[in-house]
Amino acid sequence: MANPVIFAPDKGAYIRTNAWLAAFAMAGAMLVLWLIGNPYIWTGAPAGLVAIGVRAWYLASEELVANWEMSDTTLIGPGPRKVPLNQIEIVKTMGSFVQIVTKGGDKHLIKYQADPAATKAAIRRAIG
Fold first, then answer.
1. CB–CB of 33/40 below 8 Å?
2. Which of 5, 16, 39, 100 has the fewest CB atoms found within 10 Å of its own CB?
3. How many beta carbons lie within 10 A of that of residue 57, not counting itself?
């Protein structure tokens, strides 16, 4: 692998993931209001939507630039994340995320992948 492989977050995957999160937040808020006997359970829907919408808008500037780079020997992520390929034990997908688990038990997420199965396959090929 002469050139490093870049795993960049995908804006469409970011939006889809947050849309699902908003749907769960809306339902959850309505359920809580129903359980406590509030007669206005419908207000949970806009509350959940606004909460996740604001969160998604606020975090987009840092989440959508969090690239991971894979060389012949190392997977390098945002911040201080550096994972030697020979230390990767488990690679699995979770929605639009790819989770890396090292032999030492450290866990890392490569978030918002357009094709998480392809990202997982590329990492699996690199580690053998």
1. yes
2. 39
3. 10
* pLDDT tens for each residue of 2-47: 678 999 999 999 999 999 999 999 999 999 999 999 999 999 999 9
E strand or H helix at 34: helix 11-35
Q: Which two tokens stand for residue 127?
A: 């580690």
Last residue of a domain, one of 20, 35, 63: 63
Number of folded domains in the chain? 2
End residue of a domain, out of 46, 63, 80: 63
> Is residue 33 in some structural domain?
yes
Range of the domain at 97: 68-127
Phi, psi (degrees; rounded to nearest 5) at 93:
-100, 150
d(CA 128, CA 120): 12
Residue keyed to tokens 């488990």: 90
If asked whether residues 72 and 58 sit together in one domain, one would say no
8 Å CB contact between 29 and 44: yes
Distance CA 80, CA 54 (A): 27
Rounded alpha-carbon distances, angstroms, from residue 37 to 25, 33, 92, 116: 18, 6, 41, 41
